[in-house]
Amino acid sequence: EPEVTQTPSHQVTQMGQEVILRCVPISNHLYFYWYRQILGQKVEFLVSFYNNEISEKSEIFDDQFSVERPDGSNFTLKIRSTKLEDSAMYFCASSTYRGNQPQHFGDGTRLSIL
Amino acid sequence: DQQVKQNSPSLSVQEGRISILNCDYTNSMFDYFLWYKKYPAEGPTFLISISSIKDKNEDGRFTVFLNKSAKHLSLHIVPSQPGDSAVYFCAASAYGSSNTGKLIFGQGTTLQVKP
Question: Do residues A4 and A96 touch, judged by C-beta distance below 8 A?
Answer without folding.
Answer: no
